[in-house]
Design brief:
Blueprint: H1 10-31, H2 37-55, H3 62-69, H4 79-97, H5 109-120, E1 137-139, E2 147-150, H6 157-170, H7 177-191, H8 198-213, H9 226-229, H10 232-246, H11 257-294, H12 302-309, E3 314-315, H13 316-323, H14 327-339, E4 343-346, E5 353-356, H15 364-368, E6 384-388, E7 394-398
Antiparallel strand pairs: 1-2, 3-5, 4-5, 6-7
Active site: 192
Keywords: ATP-binding, Nucleotide-binding
Binding site for ATP: 196-203
Length: 400
């Protein structure tokens, strides 16, 4: 028996409708294939990778993850963290590719274990790509000496995973994709089928559900909630609701509505962020395009100026890929931008970084101020605890 998909209430359906409205607006923008869409997709993917790994204690900047995705050595990330990021990037790259794997796609244990090997293949001592052969415990985020959750015995894992695979292929197929993804996440993280990497795999499989079931006009990185989950207090809230809903041991009869509601809020907030970043990137591109034209710069150089606009590092190899240039052309462009004062070099390597130069002051603050902070979805402002009675009736009470 798996943790079951709960019934949704009016607030849930309203929030799902609001999420879909935001997604529809994003589809409309992306359908036009703006030149900056590749940078937006890479940035969202990098934020998801950084967020998911931060939850597990492998902190990295979005800049460094983007560099890693472009094939560069990160500048500020320790080697131990870098190999974890590389593993997660491999996993996410394949998940993104599976979005158009065709109608004959099926979930199976081989696929899920294969994704786990991509994630954890550098830890051969932890049985990557194979179910665990012993017990596993999840420690409390408040005290690593305290066990917050004891996973099912290893002998139960094959049967539970077979049930989960069957559910992924055939279960609750009429449920909204956000709910299906949330329940895949919850069940996989509570089965905890591997020695390590269970949290990241659960979040990755949630994104895979989106890759397969959401429409192709909105890539899966627009639906990932990993960035939001990896932020400070959100991470503690994530652990708290997992503990509340999952219980101290595998108890699938528990009510899961609080978990789904938590995930719906995360998706709503993340959709707000994606909408904001899309608007900001569009405005920044238009501003920089006008500035480049006035200065006699080729429009392709906007690809180099766009990271600097936000105060981020400009890496030559990333610019080369974005603008689809040869190695020498990218080097010449960066040198020209440095000569004109648009960029200031940092580092001696050929792939060194640059920052905004004295020729301009990026007005990014003016653009950011156009958008308010993300808001809690309507009806989700309450801290509600829901429990299932023995007769199956859900009883909910507001806490504070």
């Amino acid at each position: 028996m798996l943790y079951e998909t709960p019934s949704l209430d009016g607030d849930d359906h309203r929030v799902l409708a609001e999420i879909e409205e935001m997604r529809q607006k994003l589809r409309h923008v992306l359908r036009a294939q703006p030149r900056w869409s590749g940078q937006l997709r890479r940035n969202l993917t990098a934020r998801a990778i950084a967020g998911s790994n931060t939850i597990e204690g492998y902190a990295a900047t979005v800049d460094d993850v983007e560099a890693l995705m472009a094939g560069e050595e990160p500048l500020e990330t320790a080697d131990r963290t870098r190999v974890e990021l590389e593993g997660y990037q491999r996993t996410m790259t394949y998940i993104q590719a599976l979005a158009d794997a065709g109608d004959d796609f099926r979930y199976d244990a081989g696929l899920i274990n294969g994704l786990h090997f991509m994630l954890q293949g550098h830890h051969l001592d932890k049985r990557p790509g194979r179910w665990r052969d012993g017990p596993v415990y999840v420690t409390s985020p408040d005290d690593p000496l305290v066990s917050a959750y004891t996973a099912p015995g290893h002998s139960d894992v094959p049967a539970l995973m077979a049930e989960l695979v069957d559910w992924l292929n055939h279960g609750d197929v009429d449920a909204p994709v956000h709910v299906r993804a949330s329940m895949a996440h919850l069940n996989l993280v509570n089965i905890h089928p591997w020695k390590d990497g269970n949290g990241r795999m659960s979040r990755a499989v949630s994104t895979l559900v989106f890759a397969r079931e959401a429409d192709s006009l909105l890539p899966p990185e627009f639906s990932s909630i990993e960035e939001w989950l990896g932020r400070g207090q959100n991470t503690y809230g994530y652990y708290r609701v997992l503990q509340q809903v999952g219980g101290p041991t595998w108890t699938p009869q528990r009510d899961t509505h609080a978990w789904v509601r938590f995930c719906l809020e995360a998706h709503h907030r993340q959709a707000q962020q994606a909408q904001r970043r899309t608007d900001l990137l569009s405005r920044a591109w238009a501003y920089l395009g006008d500035a480049a034209e006035r200065s006699g710069l080729d429009e392709r150089m906007v690809f180099a100026l766009l990271p600097a606009f936000w105060g981020s590092k400009v890496r030559r190899t990333v610019y080369q890929q974005d603008a689809e240039l040869s190695d020498q052309q990218a080097i010449r462009d960066i040198r020209e931008l440095v000569r004109l004062g648009w960029l200031v070099p940092h580092g001696k390597a050929r792939a060194g970084t640059t920052f905004p130069g004295p020729a301009w002051t990026p007005p990014s603050g003016r653009f950011v101020s156009l958008w308010p902070p993300t808001s809690i979805p309507t009806g989700f402002g309450r801290d509600v605890l829901c429990l299932a009675r023995a007769d199956g009736v859900r009883v909910c009470a507001s806490r504070g």
